[in-house]
Fold this protein.
Amino acid sequence: MTLCIKNARHLDAPVDLLVRDGRVLTMTPAGHQPLPEGCEVFEADGLLLMPSFIDVHAHFRDPGYEYKEDVVTGLAAAAHGGFGAVMCMANTRPVNDTAAVTRYMLEKARTAWPHGPRLYPVAAATVGLAGQELAPLGELKDAGCVAVSNDGCPVSSAEMMRRVMEYAADLGMVVMDHCEDPDLARGWVMNEGELSGELGVKGQPAAGEAVQVARDAMLSEYLDIPIHISHVSSALSVDVLRWARARGVKVTAETCPHYLMLDESALRGYNANAKVSPPLRRPEDREALRQAVRDGILGVLSTDHAPHALHEKERTLDEAPKGFTGLDLALPLTWRLVREGIWDEALLHQRWCYGPAEIFGLPCNRFEPGDPADFFLFDPETEWTVSPETLYSKSANTPFLGETMRGRVRHHWCDGVQLF
Amino acid sequence: MNDNRYQWTHKDLLDISQLSREDVLHILDVAASFQEINQRPVKKVPTLKGKTVILFFVENSTRTKTSFDVAGKRLSADTYSLAKSGSSLNKGESLKDTALTLQAMSPDVIVIRHPSSGAARFLAERLPCGIVNGGDGWHAHPTQALLDSLTLSRHWGTDFNGRVVTILGDIAHSRVARSNVHLLTLLGARVRLCAPRTLLPAGVHNWPAEVVADPDAAVRDSDAVMCLRLQLERQQAGLLPDLTEYSRRYCLTPARLDKARPDALVLHPGPMNRGLEIADAVADGPHSRVLDQVSSGVATRMAVLYLLATRNEGAAAPQHGD
């Protein structure tokens, strides 16, 4: 059976999209092609047609912390946020450092969401995320892991990092690194600067991130092995990345919507919902990141979706855990930059879909014949208020709580099957 | 103050930065009037009879807690203490739940001392009663700054214009320093800060204060020198070489104090590490106002409790017109 998405707008052009057996058949200017016999028609009515996004960095908390999120609710938030694929980090309990954990995640995802969004687990780099022994990456890859990262428990030893990169390279797995010197400013709660001084809380300088970006870039150059830098937060790290790329180092990197939309002033009033790792930085950093996404130094966007329960966040700033939910809000937030003319829509497709697909070797929809029929229809004008009721994630720990968002995914298809 | 139009409007006292100059002068004025009560043979007035003040001290403190306790009792308020060791916080209860529990006892004012910056504000945002910040982390200690200025004002009056106050010691981890920079500046004084760079807060160069690295230069021609307590754990955290070196470089000795103005006043929020940040001869010498600070503390806290506990009374007074 053939499905036709009629009168959608794709990159400002009215189009008809034909889909069959979970694949794209054709995308043609609206009304140019006669519809095939017996074709099911979905009238898109001018909604924006985009390829399903790929989130390369999310925390689904499952197994172990299902009170924050689980695979089923995480994928629901993904589907409604426009994501057709999510790479989930290994800091579950138990840690995703054995095939059994990977298989559990995948089985749960397939049962609840058989057509997608797809789940792509990320393997722990070291056993228990402890930074001491290599995790069995071959076994983890066979079970379905697509990349390697210790994320929030970064490998502090350069020697261990080197061995992780070498071992993962044999398996064709890209290593992703959360860059944070664990000793510099241990116990930080926000960016170090005038505001942390005024609030009387411990800060982390941007150097706490950038020194590890530099280390990784140097290892990558020396070993000639690619590396991917997670959720870059600072202009200084962007400068290091620019330097490395100019040398031809195979370093790729991402940032997240919150670093593009907010700055450290969100912490005023000790708002624990604005506490995140790495921390929100200065307005200058935000501007540098927007520019770096545009010029490709940051070739990927990710959410770093990090759900926490209300009782965990409703604490004093120093005691509250770090992290925001992000899957529900990623598209409306980054669409703001398109609406304001800072980015264009094609850049959004590139950074949220094609960039991630290239780096991690994942399937994606370029609307070419034979591509997976993963796409959604976005209404850029719908207004809605961010609240626990309107978010599909199990948690609502976001600094955007209570704000009005403009734009929401109306319909989403994965594998050619309509999810909603 | 004689201005009858002035009205105290704050539900809480969280930080000096929330106060106007008028608010500060009013507090100091009220405190000065309470100071007189503290000299009487019978040191008790019925002003806050029937009011309840809870002293919620999650961080160890003897002086501040006693000071608030004495202040409350002299105004005839009922004061109750809750310390961390005796509270459910030790059983894992969250600050939010402890706060709601306290609120259910209908206090008029809660005084909170807590190791987390922002803790007093956390309470103030959730509870309808008045909250006094008795010290939150490194952030603020407004009653300490007020009592320091009350102490200085007995010598200087309340116009600190042209006065130089030097704060010497661990500025980075000091709520006393933060609150004093706000308050002294508000009253017109010029503030100098002196500490090893490892004990200066980020962004201090944008504070309304002059940062002077050399202690002798910092003290020179000061009208007052405020020493801060050095927490011994700073050395363990790698911020200082050893305490002997700290003492040698930063201790307020008689020789160093000689560089200040001849009538300079010396303050210390206590408890003092004698021989470390302040020499015995200075602590016990003629310039020291350390014990005045303690008596000013009781009067200041009486004023603050009074203002917060009676905030709504003017408005709530019965009307007998028409």
User: Anything to note?
Assistant: Chain A has twelve helices and 18 strands. The two ends of chain A are 19 Å apart (CA to CA). The first helix of chain A runs from residue 71 to 81. The interface with chain B takes residues 192-201, 203, 205, 269-270, 311, 314-319 of chain A (CB under 8 Å).
